[in-house]
Amino acid sequence: MTEITYVVGDATDPVGDRPQIIAHIVNDVGAWGAGFVLALSRRWPEPEAQYRRVFRESMEKWGRFPGLDAVFMVKVGEGLHVANMVAQHGTRGRDNPHPLDYGALRKCLRIVGTGALMMGASVHMPRIGCGLAGGRWGLVEPLIVEQLCSRGVPVAVYDLQSPDDVSP
What we know:
alpha/beta; Leucine Aminopeptidase, subunit E, domain 1; six-stranded mixed sheet; 6 strands
């Protein structure tokens, strides 16, 4: 079993010499424009374009998004993919303070893990689900260990600054 490696840095600039997957969470209502997705969009247009295209086509064809627990893998460079994981129901607000769906996240991580094993890739991410999705790292981290690390997938979790440098 591998362990999570914690890195101070930018998850959109993953470290390592093997193929890489940048995993992050998207919602099921077509909203893209806050949080980590902004950093992705600044670096590559493809993940946002693919998310919006799938959402639009799904709405036209079925009147709904494919649903929670879907994963859309987007190639953004040689040996580099972004995994749009649909694990957030709606957007965060007063009526929806915790839109992260842990069951959907578990399934998405399982799918990403299978893809990583097939590609010989490592998985890189910010502390997924713990910003705008309203999740708790104490519940997310065990899912990453269960669905990725226990299967031998190398995982790096990125913080832009050291957690010790964050003011209370």
